[in-house]
Amino acid sequence: MEIFLRLLDIFVRAIASIVCPLLDKYVYPPKAERTLIPPIRNCLLTLSVQELRSRLRSRQLTSVVLVGAYIERIESVNAHLNAIVESRFSAALEEAAKADDLIASCESPADVEKLFEERPLLGLPVTVKESCALGGMTFAVGSLSRKEVKAQADGEPVKRLRSAGAIPLLISATPEYCFSIETDTLLNGRCLNPYDFERTPGGSSGGEGSLNGAGASLFGIGSDIGGSIRIPSLYCGVFGHKPSGGVVSTKGHFPNSTDSNIEHYLVEGPITRFAEDLNDLLKVMAGKDKSAKLRLDKPVQLNQIKVHYALGFEGVNGLMHQPVDEDIRNAICRATTHLSTLGLEVKRAKLSNLKNSMEVALSSIAKQDGMDYLLEAECSAESSGLVRKILWEILKSLGGKSIYTTNALIFELMRQTNAFMSRSRVNKYLEEGHYLIGEFRDLLGDNGVLLFPTLNLPAPRHKWSIFSLWGVDYTLIFNVLGLPVTHVPIGLNERGLPIGFSVVAAPNQDRLCLRMAVELERAFGGWKPPTPHDIDN
C-alpha cells in the first residue's frame, strides 16, 4: 500500500463527506423535474435487436423506416444532450434502402434466412464512439489539437459490424483522448445525462451512454481501459459489456499503444438497453474464432451458475474508499435474494486479496509508455520539466486558459509520475496483478460470477466527478485482470438516477456475465426510460 496515494484518497474522501451534503442541500436542491427529454412515441424504439431482426426478416418492417425512426429520435433528444459529434443520416438512409433491396431480392424464405445468417445485423442502426474509428468521419477524440483529423478507415470492430449489415448513424462524444470519466471538452462542449441535465453521463463512452439512456440508439460501440463502458452504463441506466482481455480487436482505436499487451487492458464492447442483445453483438465484434473460443453459441444453464457477491472493498482498503451508496448495496442484495430463490448457490466473497486494489490498478496506467500522450510534442522533454509543464497546464485549465481539459491533464500527470510511485513499486504491483488473475480464476472457475459495485455512487454533478475518479479501481482493477464484466441496471433511486452493479466472471467466461444480465433484466426490468413512454397508436 502506497502512503502518498492513500493520503490523497483519504483527503478526497474527507472533502467529499463535507462538500457533497452541502451541494445537495444548498447549491443543487431537489427539483420536481430534472429532465426535459421527450418521451418515446414510436414503438419501434422499444424493441431489441432480436425483435427488430425478426420483423426485417419477415418483411414486416423496412430498414428505411427503422433508421428513420432512430434519426427522428436522435434529433429530438440531442438538442438537450449534446451527445453527437458528427452525423451521417443521409448516407445511413441510403444504406438502409440498399439493405431493403437486398432483402426484397430474396426469392424464398430460405434465401432470407441464409442472408441473415451471413449478415445478422442487416439493416439495423448503430452509433459509434468517436475513438473507435469510422472511416471518413471525425477522429478528433475531443481534442482541439486533433480537430481536423478524420479516420482513414474503419476500426476493426466497426468493420465487423458493418460487414454484418449494421448501419452507422453518427459519431458520439468522448472526453479529450478518452482521459476522463466526464464527457466535457473544449472542442465539443459538455454532454449531459438524460436523467438529470445537471449530471454527467460519464466517460469515456459518455455520448454512447447518453444516447442509449435516452432511447436514441439501438446499440452503440464503446471502448474501455478503466471503466469507460461500464461507468456511462451505470450513470445512464443501460447495459454495457467489457469483454475479456484480447477478445475484441482494438485495431483503429485512438488512443492506442505500441505495447503488445495493450488488448489485455483496452477493449471495445457493446452498450445497449437490451440484455438479450449483448451475446449477438459480442459475437459479431469478436469475430468467428474468438466467439467460438468464448463458446457464445453454447447455452448457459442458469441454475448451474455459482454466485459470489461483495458490497465493496474490505478491511483497511474499504475504509480508505468512499462508502458505496446504500441504493447500490441494496440492489446487489436484492439480486442475490432473487437468485437464491431460483435455487442458485449464493455466497458472500472474501476479497482480502484486493487490499492493494488502487495500487495494482494505477500501475497498469503508469506502465503504458507506448500509449499516445496528450502533450505529445513535449514527451521527449526531461521528466521533471515535463511534470512541471503538466502542473502548469492544470493550473491554466482551472482558469480556462489551457487548450487541454483538466481531467485529461490529471490522467497525463498520473502516467508521467508513475501514479506517484517508484518504477520498482509499479513492477511489484503489476506482478501482484498477475497473481490476482489466478486467484480470480480459482474463485470463479468456469461456472461462477461475482456481483460487485460498478462504482460507489450514481452519476455525479458536472465538475464534481473528481470524487468518483478516486474510486476508479472499482472498474480499472478488472481491466488489469482481463476479466469480462457486464454492468446491469437495476432501476432508479429516489432522485430518479439509475443504479446498478457489475457481474464479473473468469477470463473468457463472458457468456456467464451475459446470461446473468438476461436473468436480472427479466427480474428487475432492465432499462427504465428517463421519461415514461407515450406511444402513438
UniProtKB/TrEMBL annotation:
Q: Which organism is it from?
A: Drosophila kikkawai (Fruit fly)
**Mind telling me which GO cellular component terms the entry cites?**
endomembrane system
Q: Name one Pfam family in it.
A: Amidase
Does this entry carry the keyword Signal? Answer: yes
Q: What protein name applies here? A: Fatty-acid amide hydrolase 2-B
Q: Which gene produces this protein?
A: LOC108071405
**InterPro entries attached to this UniProt entry:** Amidase_dom (IPR023631), AS_sf (IPR036928), FAAH2 (IPR052739)
Which residues participate directly in catalysis?
Answer: K129 (charge relay system), S204 (charge relay system), S228 (acyl-ester intermediate)
Name the UniProt key words of this record, in alphabetical order: Hydrolase, Signal
Q: Which superkingdom is the protein from?
A: Eukaryota
